[in-house]
Each structure stands twice: as structure tokens, then as C-alpha cells.
Design a protein that fits this description.
With 379 residues, the protein is of the alpha/beta class. The chain is 36% helix and 27% strand. The chain has a single domain, classed as FAD/NAD(P)-binding domain (3-Layer(bba) Sandwich). The protein has twelve helices and 17 strands. Strand 4 and strand 5 form a beta hairpin. Bound molecules: flavin-adenine dinucleotide (FAD).
Length: 379
């Protein structure tokens, strides 16, 4: 597809929400533009465990998952800082794949389906004149009829639009940091481990090739307390959990330095901002320990595709498109985010984590129920 004056829909951010929704709409013949500020392929802080609920959707979009020799993950191990462990089968399970491989492969599928991928291209501003959007980016100025914000947890546009979650002072839900490594080792290939430590938790699971993804979330306060040194924090705080102590001390990382992010917020967000439909983390971030953020991002993109199509075919007005998207988003995800926030508050506090794990061990049905509350069905 060649470049045109006005696109049917633009996606700001080429992570999972933006890429999958862009492919989906392009497959129906629409003229689609996608902006990604980083240069593909690139690493991203993420636990890289994807719930099986999005397997079929990814395959329908053209990702040859069955041929990619990816590890299938069916079990969960949770350890508490003082050593209590809980092992569970995962009701639906998941698979492991790095974002480096996944996002790049989807980008190529997007291009093959006619999406114009602007990369690297950072969107600086978006203006709506009542009919169309004008997008100002480092790659030039573009216009489009619909616009989706798929730019992840926090972006320059959140600051420009003064979104309420960004204006909040540091609170127990908005001051987290994420750290990720790819490591070599001999761990269970069909298990995701979640090791808790004071004010944080660390996931370990297999991805493609000979790699495991080691990724943790903790408070900015923990880093500050460690003199802003990740090494000190890992030695003095994470390593108090004996399971983590062994992993960290024996770890062979594929990177010189870990990949990091800061200012991660689980506070509520709006799903439409200045007539832009918000997808994925830009609409609301679920606690990573639920292992469901990527599926939610793709599923929210699929919801947006359906209403955008109806609008472009003139079946519904713009007001109706925005209303339907917000309603459907809330129906599908609001409950999961509430449960995710609740678990996020419990985990990492040594006493509550221990009590929580003890309760889960005693009542396996309760833990299965809780896992189901943060997950959805295949879509
Ligand atoms: C520590 C941690 C561990 C996690 N582990 C898991 C897990 O194991 N399983 C799981 O399912 N989920 C996990 N998640 C959640 C998951 O990573 C996210 O929910 C998912 O990546 C959201 O996808 P997205 O497309 O909304 O955003 P992203 O994947 O973040 O994509 C957004 C993209 O937008 C780009 N961008 C931003 N601003 C601009 C701009 N102005 N112009 C152009 N481009 C822009 C960014 O570069 C980025 O590539 C984890 C999250 C954290 C923090």
C-alpha cells in the first residue's frame, strides 16, 4: 500500500496492542499508519509469559506460533520471602516468547498486510478538529480519521494531555520500577516461578532458544534505599529470599546491563482521551504478577478494531464509537484490574505474602479461582 494523504486509522505505539490492532484493521482493507519511537527489534521490560487466551488470535493474525518451538508453561511456583512455597497447575497456562522476537515479527506481518510503519518515529502531539486528527511526529505530519493511543504505560502524550494518573503524587500504586534480564540456566521449562521479596516480586520463565526471562517489579523506594544501585538492591533485598539468592548469584546474563523502566503506575486511567481510543497499558495496567497484561493489550485492540470498523463504515457516530469502546472495555477488564490491584497490594509485604500463600496452600480452589479472576477467555 502506498502512502496516502489521510489514513483511516493511526496507532501511536507499536507494542502488542498497536501492532495487533493495526494488522487486524489492515486485513480488512483499511489504510493504516503506525508510529513506533524505538527501532525494531528492541528489548522491553516484560516477564514474557503470555497467557494462552491470545494464542488463537495471534495465529489468526498470521503469527506461526506452532512452528516457533516456544516453551509451553503449565505450572506456577510461588515462593515467599521466608521460604514457604506454593505449586499449582495453571488453569489455562501460557507460552514464553521474548518481546524482541514477538514485536519484530508482528511488525513484519503488519508491513506485509499494508500497514505503513513509521519507525523510528516519535509522536509529539495530536490535534483533533472535529473531523480528523493531525499527528505531529519526528517523521513528519500526518492526518487520519481515527486515532488509537497504544503507547504503553507512560508517554510524553500523557504529560501533554495532563492525564489524571500522571498528576498523582507518589502513592502505593504508582511508584514502581521494572528490571529485566535474559539469562542462561537449567530451570523448569514448563513452569513460571514468582519469587517474592520485600516490596516486590521476580518472575522467571523460559522463552525461545536457550534463554529464560528474569524480570522483577519493585518500589522506587527499594532502589533509593540501595543507593540507586541495582546490584546492591539485588544483593541486599532480593537475595533475602533464598530461591532468589541462588538465581542471582549464579546468574549468567545475556546483557551487560539489565533493561529497566521507572514510574510504573497501576492507578486508574481513562479509555478515551481527546477522542483518541486508548489501548493496552495506555488504558490501564494490570499488576504484572497476573501474567495477563499482554493478552489484555491485544484484546483491548481487538475491541477497538470492531468499533472503529463500524464508525468507518458509517454504521455508528464518533460519539457512539467512543461510548461503546469505553463500555466494552470496562465490562471486560475493570474487574480484572481491581483484582490485580488487590493482589499487588498483598504481595511483597512479608507478613501478608506469607499469610496469603498459607491460605492458598490450604485452599487450592481459592488460588485457582483467584488466577481465573485476573484472566479472560480466548478471544
Ligand atoms: C515488570 C513487568 C513485567 C511484566 N510481565 C508480564 C508478563 O509476564 N506477561 C504479560 O502478559 N504481561 C506482562 N507485563 C505487562 C505487559 O508488558 C504490558 O501489559 C504490555 O506490554 C502492554 O502492551 P502495550 O502494547 O499496551 O504497550 P507496550 O508494549 O509498552 O508498547 C507501547 C509502545 O509505544 C511506544 N511509544 C511510546 N510513546 C510513543 C510515542 N510518543 N510515539 C511513538 N511510539 C511511542 C513505546 O516505545 C512502545 O514500544 C509486565 C509488565 C511489567 C512492568
Amino acid at each position: 500500500m502506498s502512502k496516502v494523504d489521510t489514513y483511516d486509522c493511526a496507532f501511536i505505539g507499536g507494542g502488542l496492542a498497536g501492532l495487533t490492532a493495526a494488522i487486524n484493521l489492515a486485513k480488512s482493507g483499511y489504510r493504516i499508519l503506525l508510529f513506533e519511537k524505538e527501532t525494531y527489534p528492541f528489548h522491553k521490560v516484560c516477564g514474557e509469559y503470555i497467557s494462552m487466551e491470545s494464542w488463537d488470535y495471534l495465529v489468526r493474525l498470521g503469527l506461526p506460533l506452532a512452528d516457533m518451538q516456544l516453551p509451553r508453561i503449565k505450572k506456577l511456583l510461588v515462593t515467599a520471602p521466608i521460604g514457604i512455597t506454593l505449586e499449582q497447575d495453571l488453569p489455562l497456562g501460557g507460552f514464553g516468547i521474548s518481546r524482541y522476537l514477538l514485536d519484530e515479527t508482528l511488525m513484519h506481518i503488519a508491513k506485509k498486510n499494508g500497514v505503513i510503519v513509521m519507525n523510528p518515529a516519535k509522536v509529539e502531539s495530536v490535534a483533533f478538529d472535529g473531523k480528523q486528527f493531525t499527528i505531529n511526529s519526528s517523521a513528519g505530519v500526518f492526518t487520519c480519521t481515527c486515532c488509537c493511543g497504544s503507547y504503553g504505560k507512560r508517554s510524553n502524550l500523557d504529560r501533554i494531555w495532563k492525564r489524571p494518573f500522571i498528576l498523582k503524587k507518589p502513592n502505593p500504586l504508582n511508584h514502581f520500577i521494572g528490571v529485566k534480564y535474559h539469562i542462561a540456566g537449567h530451570f523448569n521449562t514448563d513452569q513460571i516461578a514468582l519469587h517474592n521479596f520485600s516490596d516486590g516480586y521476580c518472575g522467571l520463565s523460559k522463552i525461545e532458544g536457550d534463554r529464560y526471562c528474569l524480570c522483577y517489579l519493585t518500589t522506587a523506594e527499594n532502589l533509593k534505599r540501595s543507593g540507586n544501585s541495582i546490584e546492591t538492591m539485588e544483593r541486599e533485598i532480593l537475595s533475602k529470599n533464598p530461591h532468589l539468592e541462588k538465581i542471582i548469584s549464579e546468574r549468567q546474563s545475556f546483557y551487560e546491563q539489565p533493561i529497566t523502566i521507572s514510574q510504573v503506575s497501576f492507578n486508574k486511567k481513562t479509555q478515551v482521551e481527546n477522542h483518541v481510543l486508548m489501548l493496552g497499558d495506555a488504558a490501564g495496567l494490570i499488576a504484572p504478577l497476573s501474567g495477563n497484561g499482554m493478552s489484555m493489550a491485544m484484546h483491548s485492540g481487538k475491541l477497538a478494531v470492531a468499533v472503529v470498523e463500524d464508525f468507518l463504515e458509517k454504521k455508528i457516530s464518533r460519539v457512539e464509537m467512543e461510548k461503546r469502546y469505553q463500555k466494552q472495555w470496562k465490562q471486560l477488564f475493570a474487574g480484572r484490574l481491581v483484582t490485580g490491584r488487590l493482589i499487588q497490594r498483598v504481595f511483597g509485604k512479608p507478613t501478608t505474602t506469607n499469610i496469603f500463600l498459607w491460605m492458598m496452600k490450604k485452599t487450592p480452589n481459592l488460588s485457582q479461582w483467584l488466577i481465573r479472576q485476573t484472566h479472560g477467555n480466548p478471544f
